[in-house]
């Protein structure tokens, strides 16, 4: 299958490119820099420069017409909720504007590839207890520019399907993690700090609220789900993507500490405790499972072990 991946040089993009090429797909990626990070240079996929926030529909339509992808995976985004608060305009420009640029370019290209539009489970905000675990019917209550822009992009995808017949499916992944993830995300931050303490680079792990429960899925399972949606998802439909299991951050840290080669001290830093932290968010991904036959293959223990090993190697 010929595939085009926006945001291919990012965390999820790199793992998706590895999965797609491993399945025999011919992959071309777009990124704002047009360059692979050093640790991804071995991936057997071409990469080209393109800035989706720039909004050049015609230029992207030309790329699509030349590459003739059978599937397009739209990952390019400003994906950090905290960063979106600091730069709401930039977040909206890329997350909604970039999706619009892509869908309009697909329409103009004269082709009809399957588009997997990647949103986020955080668009549900802080669901009421009766909506837990969270299904696709849960009301949208986004509480930051990132989640709001992702919810709007999903609505754009539905509108494009209804108005233009665009072959688009929307994925709403909940929290995901794995090796190579930035330490601005919580599990990677914990794994990095444990590796730093092991290496003698810091005296202790500093944390915020560890009572939060999240549904973490391994990024490699997420990549596999995206390809299955490209093959089997129903156009115009939204699919939650998550393990269906909640992991308490304190338990995740305990798992990492147990894997460490030395005792790991922990300090709760009041500055890291955010009173607005959402206490519980777990996905109901039964619709995805029924549609494409996906099940997660990685346990949270394996994900954490691989993340810790990644940071050990990076710090050395």
What this model shows, in words?
Helices cover 41% and strands 16% of the residues. By secondary structure, it is of the alpha/beta class. The chain has two domains: 2-177 and 217-242 and 284-292, 3-Layer(aba) Sandwich (Rossmann fold); 186-213 and 246-282 and 300-315, UDP-galactose 4-epimerase, domain 1, CATH 3.90.25.10. It has a seven-stranded parallel sheet, with helices on both faces. A three-stranded mixed sheet has the order 12-9-14. A two-stranded parallel sheet has the order 7-10. Helix 4 (88-95) runs parallel beside helix 6 (145-164).
The CATH C-level name of the largest domain is Alpha Beta
Series of secondary-structure elements, N-terminal to C-terminal: EHEEHEHHHEHEEHEEEHEEHEEHH
How many helices? 11
As a percent range, the share of strand residues is 15-25%
How do the strands line up in the largest sheet? 3-2-1-4-5-6-11
- Biggest beta-sheet profile: 7 strands, parallel
End-to-end C-alpha gap: 38 Å
Structural domains: how many: 2
Q: Low-confidence runs (pLDDT<50, min 5 residues)?
A: none
CATH topology of the largest domain: Rossmann fold
How many DSSP-defined strands?
14
Alpha-carbon Rg, integer: 19 Å
Q: SS-based structural class?
A: alpha/beta
**Form type:** globular
Helix content: 40-55%
Give the CATH H-level superfamily of the largest domain.
NAD(P)-binding Rossmann-like Domain
